[in-house]
Amino acid sequence: MEEKEISQAVIGRLPRYFRYLGDLKDEGVERISSQELSELMKVTASQIRQDFNNFGGFGQQGYGYNVEFLYNEIGRILGLDQTHHFIIIGAGNLGQALGNYLNFERRGFIFSGIFDKNPELVGKDVRGIKVQPMENMEQFVRENDIDIAVLTIPKASALEVSERLVQYGIKAFWNFAHVDLPVPEGIQVENVHLSDSLMKLSYNISRYKKEREEK
Ligand code: NAI
Q1: Total number of domains constituting the chain
Q2: The pLDDT value given to residue 7
Q3: What is the pTM (predicted TM-score) of this model?
Q4: CA of 16 to the centre of ligand 1 (A)
Q5: Are residues 120 and 185 in the same domain?
Q6: CA 61 – CA 166 distance, rounded (Å)
Q7: Are 172 and 148 in contact (CB under 8 A)?
Q8: CA 115 to ligand 1 centroid distance, Å
Q9: CATH code: domain of residue 179
Q10: Ligand 1 centre distance from Cα of residue 11 (Å)
């Protein structure tokens, strides 16, 4: 199915649909109406229909959505029907935690290498993969069909390291360093800032408290 240009807002909602549909599929649910999905996910049924209409709808009048078909289609749209090899730069707390997270493989993301400039970390085992020195990075990226670099290094080094990685052929960054990467056109960057999420939580706590005080 050919899909039209999809807004980033819709793309941002697809992983959540994908997760819920995956759970329904695992529970043996074969079909679901937009109303039922709406109640489950706490989003309006019209939002769900609008989102799915971007890809031709997926549903049949009076039948609802075929869970497995929808799950597979959304997975395909998200590119999860392909495998992506990734490396981690920075084998500190965060880099090792991400390397140790097994579930990425389930989604087709293959942890292939981990690098650090600290000689004391070189050789350390992270889920069966040894931390390598930065000098090995170029050859490793060029020879191993690596798609994604995960940056878990301080912001002071992130720009220089990302520039090098682009030269070696990296096409996408999952960037945890707190800096925007000025990458050339065609290179994809997804910034992750856990603290942004925490600040949203903090805002909601304050708002809730204020509302209760006003009652
Ligand atoms: P950490 O200090 O445990 O690890 C950083 C690692 O990067 C160290 O092993 C260090 O040797 C290595 N490193 C530093 N410069 C390097 C370079 N030029 N090349 C290769 N390796 C280099 O720190 P942690 O807790 O793992 O955090 C890593 C970074 O991620 C920090 O800058 C932190 O601010 C950021 N961070 C971001 C989060 C987010 O939500 N975006 C959450 C937590 C941390």
Answers
A1: 2
A2: 87
A3: 0.89
A4: 28
A5: yes
A6: 47
A7: yes
A8: 11
A9: 3.40.50.720
A10: 28
